[in-house]
């Protein structure tokens, strides 16, 4: 069967939405009720590090996340191994025993919107004002990962992430975020120093912070993140469209329209007046018709004067030979 070109376009238009939904999370088009959010400026791989010290060991964990796409090559981290290139958030654990008993390093996925053998996992979206009327932003719950307690844990537990994008008009959301290279250097330095009790989550001035990480009441590993950004503000998309450039363009558009209407009214009224008062016909109907007819000749004379002036300015002055 031969498919016509327009049939191909219709087929593609039908398939593209399903292909887009296969990614699990379209961060550029988030709709919650009557509000729309575009988090695509936060795309890319971002890195967070934590260090926890207990009487038995020191555990350093590096989290890599990409909310708009999969981690791809960033899912490979030195001796930790490969977390899975199709994952969205992965954890890389380095645990050293205080008594020198050994080191255990391993990765595990936290968010996998396309978990093997399962249907596409849609994120849970909720406005923060629906939870707390005093807080503006967006809450996104992602899941599909598998938590491991150690490198020998084959079965694991369910894992996921809850990210609260909090409205902050002064922040883009990228402040204080490290590159992968900077983050690895800091993680190595913390492991070497082995300092601090409890949990440390890196740069306190960063727009992206770890709120908590661990097993919840239902025995699911949950990574909770706070992300301050102007893109989570409820009215940001509307305010973005109301830029000064759009306002100035609207003003000049109305100015042109008003000028056109004024000229049209003047010509119509003048023509009506000449017809009723003088019985004018043809060009004589138009007010200042003689001037309008002479415009081409006036323009030619003006252009000739300009050319003569330029040629005269370029001519050579001085004494002539006798």
UniProtKB/TrEMBL annotation:
Keyword Membrane tagged: yes
Transmembrane segments: 249-269
Keyword Signal: yes
MRH domain ranges (all copies): 25-235
Gene3D superfamilies membership: Mannose-6-phosphate receptor binding domain
Signal peptide range: 1-22
Domain of life where this protein originates: Eukaryota
Chief location of this protein within or outside the cell: membrane
BP terms from Gene Ontology: autophagy; protein transport
Topology class, membrane: Single-pass type I membrane protein; Single-pass membrane protein
Region (Disordered): 185-210
Keyword terms of this UniProt record: Autophagy, Cytoplasmic vesicle, Disulfide bond, Golgi apparatus, Membrane, Mitochondrion, Protein transport, Signal, Transmembrane, Transmembrane helix, Transport
Similarity field: Belongs to the ATG27 family.
Name this polypeptide is given: Autophagy-related protein 27
């Amino acid at each position: 069967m031969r498919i016509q070109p327009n049939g191909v376009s219709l087929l593609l238009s039908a398939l593209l939405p399903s292909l887009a939904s296969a990614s699990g999370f379209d961060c550029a088009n988030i709709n919650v009720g009557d509000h729309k959010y575009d988090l695509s400026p936060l795309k890319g791989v971002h890195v967070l590090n934590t260090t926890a010290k207990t009487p038995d060991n020191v555990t350093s964990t590096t989290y890599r996340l990409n909310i708009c796409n999969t981690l791809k090559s960033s899912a490979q981290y030195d001796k930790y191994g490969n977390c899975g290139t199709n994952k969205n958030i992965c954890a890389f654990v380095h645990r050293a025993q205080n008594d020198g008993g050994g080191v255990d390093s391993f990765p595990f996925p936290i968010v996998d919107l396309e978990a093997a053998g399962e249907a596409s996992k849609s994120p849970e979206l909720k406005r923060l004002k629906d939870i707390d009327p005093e807080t503006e932003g967006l809450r996104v719950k992602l899941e599909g990962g598998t938590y491991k307690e150690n490198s020998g844990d084959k079965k694991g537990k369910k894992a996921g992430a809850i990210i609260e994008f909090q409205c902050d008009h002064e922040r883009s959301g990228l402040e204080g975020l490290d590159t992968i290279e900077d983050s690895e250097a800091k993680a190595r330095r913390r492991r070497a120093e082995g300092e601090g009790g409890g949990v440390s989550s890196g740069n306190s001035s960063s727009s992206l912070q770890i709120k908590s990480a661990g097993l919840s009441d239902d025995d699911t590993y949950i990574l909770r993140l706070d992300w301050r950004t102007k893109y989570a503000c409820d009215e940001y998309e509307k305010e973005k469209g109301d830029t000064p450039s759009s306002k100035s363009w609207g003003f000049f558009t109305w100015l042109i329209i008003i000028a056109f209407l004024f000229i049209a009214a003047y010509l119509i009224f003048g023509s009506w007046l000449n017809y009723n008062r003088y019985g004018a016909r043809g060009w004589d109907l138009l007010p200042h018709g003689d001037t309008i007819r002479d415009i081409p000749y006036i323009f030619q004379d003006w252009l000739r004067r300009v050319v003569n002036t330029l040629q005269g300015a370029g001519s050579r002055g001085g004494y002539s030979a006798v």
